[in-house]
Specification:
The complex is a heterodimer of chains A (423) and B (183). Chain A is of the alpha+beta class. In chain A, the strands form 6 sheets. In chain A, strands 1, 3, 5, 7, 9 and 10 form a 6-stranded mixed β-sheet that branches. A 6-stranded mixed β-sheet of chain A has the order 19-18-15-20-21-22, with helices on both faces. Chain A has a 4-stranded antiparallel β-sheet with strand order 2-4-8-6, with no helix packed on it. Chain A is elongated and about 135 Å long. In chain B, helix 1 runs antiparallel to helix 2, helix 2 packs antiparallel against helix 3 and helix 4 runs antiparallel to helix 5. Chain B is an all-alpha fold and 183 residues long. Helix content of chain B is 79%, strand content 0%. The longest helix of chain B has 32 residues. Classes of the chains: A alpha+beta (423), B mainly alpha (183). Chains A and B meet through strand 1, helix 1, helix 2, strand 5 and strand 7 of A and helix 3, helix 4, helix 5, helix 6 and helix 7 of B.
């Protein structure tokens, strides 16, 4: 706690002293009458001043919410020694908005216990601490003020909201465990693959009786097994385009969270790599626990400015299992990220790039020079996309006003076409 | 509101004076200008200068007065005190608007203070009028004035010692954070 005298104390002392001295010098009792209230007020203010004793508790309705949701919070104040006026300020990050607005001016009496209800709107994803209270108290005479900070922070996790996805990208290769993807290999499954002559050891229930009757010998059906896949979400955090409170990282994170949730529901193993100024990764795994682990890891994601050169060699090998589908979400603003993606493709990964377009975050060009710079910038991006296409990497541009489903459909078509061409 | 109270004091002194109303008005006007600047610019440090200016206008009026005691002095004191309280309240750096209840309470306290000033001033003038003047009374007055100022100074020094931040305390940091938060 810190305390400080207000300018009033010096002013009143000066007025009282001057009035009394002038009264003595001139012998005018009226001047004593003028000075007396200032002297009395000052004396009482100095005598009655005390340090306030306050304690607080902050409670949140829930500790995890979805982006855009609103939750209730209760601030309980227990007052041992109160104050005439107390300014209560909740120290909150800009992504959270409280209703009613704080700071508020209150009067707190001794022994009072009061509760204040606040609605908190969580407008942006992230991991926050809610409940750091800053209080400034004023005494009844306005001579002193005290400031204290009560750190009653409660963790609040705001998860990114889901983007609509109609159909997920199908990985080229599947793994050995059962899942929802029809494997290219033949084995036990539902999806019909081919016919072949019966060999010893084949099950009788696989015999195709119609084909056998037509050909005069036993033929059996072959099937594609349903297998799971390894999917790695690759998030480029080298750079972002930002305008106001919006940034390219926001849609990228929403897309990443949606993709992780959907792939995990399909029994796939999902991993996460945040590749940028700070490298963060999670080994591929399955289940709900993995979903929460990845989403929690995403909440800590931020753009950190770094000039250090990074390539995929710094990513632990187990994070990128062979034959994994790598879905990269990137604004393609940093050469290091582009280089890493080309490197991944060169290493044989099934790579898909969803470009979170930074165009809508840029200011409109004002003069001829800016128009020219804008054109050059767009041409460079086009050239980069062309480089990706030549390397066999499907790139879909995801504009802010379009849905993720459309971008996924675009790369999905390229993916299918690429597979046919290579077959 | 504080300016109108102060203007009232200046107008009263200028109209009630028997001699040199221009001087009274000039001194009072100077005080009012300083007060206006302090309130408009949000500078509480120059507010006492303006208050002294207005009080000086009244003192000039008293000095040119032939009668012994001004019967309106308690009301002038009440007006000056109320104006000072209102001006300092106006200049207080509050980050939120007070509620209606709190405002009403502040006004009530101010009214009580002004009334107390008027009553106390009347009593003081009554005592001063009855007692007359003598060397002993003057000496007692000097001693009382010195004692009052000594007590006030002593209390202020004691508070300052109590409030001084000890080693390792980060009071400045706390203040800075609060200012940032208000922005």
């Amino acid at each position: 706690m810190s305390g400080a005298a207000t300018p009033k104390i010096g002013a009143y002392a000066g007025l009282a002293a001057l009035g009394l001295l002038a009264a003595l010098a001139t012998g005018l009792p009226e001047l004593v009458v003028l000075a007396a209230p200032f002297a009395i007020s000052l004396g009482l203010g100095l005598l009655l001043v005390r340090d306030p004793e306050l304690d607080a508790k902050v409670m949140l309705e829930r500790d995890h919410v979805l982006e855009g949701e609103e939750i209730g919070a209760t601030i309980e104040l227990r007052v041992a020694k109160g104050a005439e006026r107390v300014e209560l300020l909740i120290d909150i990050p800009p992504a959270l908005v409280t209703t009613p607005e704080y700071p508020r001016l209150l009067r707190l009496r001794d022994g009072e216990e009061s509760a204040y209800h606040v609605r908190v709107k969580c407008s942006r994803w992230g991991a926050y601490g809610f409940g750091r209270l800053q209080l400034r108290t004023h005494d009844a005479f306005g001579m002193f003020r005290h400031e204290l900070v009560l750190d009653c922070r409660q963790p609040l996790k705001v998860y990114p909201r889901e983007e609509s996805i109609r159909q997920l990208l199908r990985p080229r290769e599947t793994q050995v465990f059962s899942g929802n993807h029809v494997a290219r290999q033949r084995g036990e499954g539902i999806e019909f693959a081919d016919l072949r002559p019966f060999v010893a050891g084949d099950r009788v229930r696989h015999v195709n009786w119609r084909a056998s009757a037509r050909r005069g010998e036993l033929w059996v059906n072959e099937h594609h097994p349903e297998r799971n896949a390894d999917v790695v979400i690759f998030l480029d955090t080298f750079a972002e385009a930002r305008r106001g409170g919006r940034s390219t990282l926001d849609p990228a994170l929403r897309a990443a969270a949606s993709l992780v949730g959907r792939y995990l529901r399909q029994k796939d193993r999902v991993g996460f790599v945040s590749f940028g100024g700070m490298l963060n990764w999670l080994l591929p795994s399955t289940g709900n626990r993995q979903l929460y682990r990845i989403v929690d890891a995403m909440l800590d994601t931020q753009i950190l400015l770094s000039y250090a050169w990074r390539d995929v060699a710094v990513i632990p090998r187990r994070t990128l299992p062979p034959q994994a589908l790598v879905v990269a979400l990137t604004p393609l603003l940093d050469d290091r990220a582009a280089g890493a993606l080309l490197d991944l493709r060169a290493r044989g990964f099934d790579l898909v790039v969803i470009e979170v377009s930074p165009s809508s975050y840029l200011p409109d060009p004002k003069d001829e020079l800016e128009v020219l710079a804008d054109r050059l910038w767009r041409l460079r991006r086009e050239a980069l996309r062309d480089r990706f296409a030549r390397a066999g990497i499907p790139v879909a541009v995801w504009e802010e006003d379009s849905s993720l489903a459309a971008a996924l459909e675009e790369v999905s078509a390229y993916h299918r076409f690429g597979r046919l061409a290579s077959a | 509101m504080p300016l109108s109270l102060l203007a009232g004091i200046v107008v009263y002194a200028a109209t009630a004076t028997e001699r040199f109303p221009t001087i009274v008005l000039a001194v009072g006007a100077a005080g009012l200008v300083v007060n206006t600047v302090a309130l408009a610019g949000g500078w509480p440090s120059i507010l006492p200068v303006g208050l002294v200016g207005v009080a000086a206008a009244y003192a000039v009026f008293l000095a040119f007065r032939s009668e012994s005691v001004d019967p309106w002095a308690p009301f002038v004191a009440a007006a000056l005190f109320a104006a000072a309280e209102l001006a300092f309240t106006f200049l207080e750096p509050l980050s939120a608007r007070p509620s209606r209840a709190l405002q009403a309470r502040q006004l009530l306290t101010l009214g009580a203070g002004a009334l107390g000033t008027a009553i106390f001033g009347s009593a003081l003038l009554l005592v001063a009028g009855e007692g007359g003047s003598s060397v002993a009374l003057d000496a007692a007055g000097i001693l009382a004035a010195v004692a009052v100022m000594a007590v006030v100074a002593g209390l202020a020094v004691r508070r300052a010692t109590q409030d001084a931040p000890s080693a390792g305390q980060t009071s400045r940091a706390v203040v800075t954070t609060f200012e940032d938060g208000m922005d």
